[in-house]
Amino acid sequence: MPRYLVTSALPYANGPIHFGHVAGAYLPADVYVRYLKMAKGPENVLYVCGTDEHGVAITLKAEQEGVGYRAYVDRWHSEIRSLFDRFGIEFDTFSGTSRCAFHADASRKFFSVLLERGFVFAKTEKQWFSEQSARFLPDRYLQGGCPQCGFAKARGDECPDCGSWIDARELQNPVSLIDGSSPVLKATKHWFLDLPKLQQAGLDSWYRGNDENHPVHPWKPNVQGHVQAMLRDLHARPITRDLPWGVKLPEGLEGAEGKVLYVWFDAPIGYISATMEWAAAQGTPDAWMDWWQKEDTRLVHFIGKDNIAFHVVVFPSMLLGQEDAWQGKPFVMPWAVPANEFYNLQGRKFNTSSGWYLDNDSFFAQYNPDAARFHVLMSAPETADSEFSWPEFQVTNNNLLADKVGNLASRVLKFLDKRFGSCVPEVAKEPTAAILAVRGHQALQDADAAFAAIAGFLENFEFRKATQHLIAGCTALNQFFDAMEPWIKIKGSQAGDWECCVETLERCVAYLELLSRRIAPFCPTTAGKLRNMLGAVAETHVASAWGEENVAQAPATLPAGLRIGNVEMLFLKIEDEQISAEIAKLEASASAAAE
Asked: Among 82-86, 166-170, 390-394, where is mean pLDDT lowest?
């Protein structure tokens, strides 16, 4: 059985993350990992993440706020982790590129190996220099006119008005953002990753699925289009910066004084260094190699579309360039990169500075985190940009989760409590025509097919379809319960009424146990509550096991006499007034920010 090494893009420790980030790279990964651990065994899955804590944006913001770099990234590391906890997103290890004891040395070794093998070269070129502050200015320290559209406040790397990538040297009338001076161009030495050379050395073959040692999952269309365009015109990219904060270059390298590795170079190495840290914490420091250097590992990167280039071109190139420099073994290559598009809010992009965002404290104080998880998954931007809508969130919570899931569990278990003393009734050993009619009911067959399909969708990264089939299964079970009318059959006098009632209850409880496992990757807290409600019935299967119902078959008959637990509401409904208030609050926040 293969091992699954799953990563999510390292969130940048430069501000809060929001629902859009969660929808793109973290919640889908968490659901995928929870499913894999249930279906393949937890020992075969490792989920690695951490904060990206270097780079120009961090040094610039920290300096503007007058706080130390360490204090700055520590604050955002804690804030980001807090939101993940609220969403119920669980990592096997969550580190950070400046706090991991293994990261700097691992990054320097990557650089040195690439340099020795001719995949990194040095070049001297001119860069903006502030004479007033006596320092070189990386692109994000600059502001000036866009050479493409003339926008007066373009950054040194990108124009926020026209979206063009910018060579900082082409900025019109540049200004230093740290001292307001007009900088001058001055020669400086930097190092570049030779991507065209790495493309010829194996990147192209791997990407096109022609490398037998490194198979790939079929690429999503959005990944294909982006990467194919890059590979047609690949260029060397700079991998060093003049900055006081970051991974310093190896000692003894001529011209390396005051320079650090560019953040996009050292950040993906954070996946490896975090795994090293995890292995050391387990007391098995070499175990990281089992995940990064064994052929049976499937490396899966969950990212947003803005990270496609780094995870399908740059990082794979860096891995290929290491060859056997690490204990004589090559690194595994990415097996799948299920990149998502952007997730917006009520028709606009999430933007904290413009007041268009969801306040995390307020949201989780009022609403069920599992409802948020499920709605984000149902509206995930898998193939195109999508959005969080307050009215649609209400529909997901009320019409789907409360009515389809919560109401099913409440109706069945309360009936069992009232009429059968909270115990599973004994069904007839010899099935009668009435019992066979119950077991063969079309609604149960529909539920079997819907629940059986979930695994395939999850393994193919189709989370929207997985949630739709979970709801379809619950819809079928509600239809079955309604059609069988056990509240009438229990009082009936016709032949087979009692057997029909008993069989209906047993089937519904058995399917609720199955549902408690099928819903677990999506709504883990709800799954735990449902299993508590099922009491001894839940002991018929291990909570952490997906089970073998991955084909369209009914769950096994439950032993009679199993006692259920206390019944509670799984999802509370959201009133129209709450939704109206949330929309009004969002619009007021945006208006206040604009003023």
From this structure: 166-170
CATH of the domain at 204: 3.40.50.620
Report in angstroms the alpha-carbon separations of 106 from 103, 328, 411: 5, 15, 57
Task: Indicate whether 550 pLDDT > 70.
Answer: no
Number of domains in the chain: 3
Sheet holding 93-96, edge to edge: 93-96, 45-51, 3-8, 297-302, 334-336
Q: Are 594 and 576 in contact (CB under 8 A)?
A: no
Task: Assess whether 406 and 534 both reside in one domain.
Answer: yes
Helix (H, G, I), strand (E, B) or coil at 343: strand
Query: Pairing relation of β-strands 154-155 and 240-242?
Result: unpaired
247 and 320, same domain (yes or no): yes
Q: With bands split at pLDDT 50, 70 and 90, how would you rate the model's confidence at 591?
A: very high
Is the domain of 295 the same as that of 250? yes
Q: What is the pTM of this model?
A: 0.94
Domain that holds residue 21: 3-119+194-340
Could you report the per-residue pLDDT of 58-106, keeping only the tens digit for each? 998 999 899 999 999 999 999 999 999 999 999 999 999 999 999 999 9
State phi, psi for 235 to the nearest 5 degrees. -125, 160
Same domain, 423 and 502: yes
Instruction: Please give the span between the terminal C-alpha atoms of the chain, in angstroms, as a whole number.
Output: 58
399-419 residue pLDDT tens: 999 999 999 999 999 999 999
Q: Which of 413, 424, 410 is nearest to 536 (CA)?
A: 424
Whether residue 198 is found in the same domain as residue 267: yes
Contacts of 204 (CB under 8 A, 6+ apart): 231
Residues in CB range of 362: below 8 A, 6 or more apart: none
**Does residue 102 sit in the same domain as residue 31?**
yes
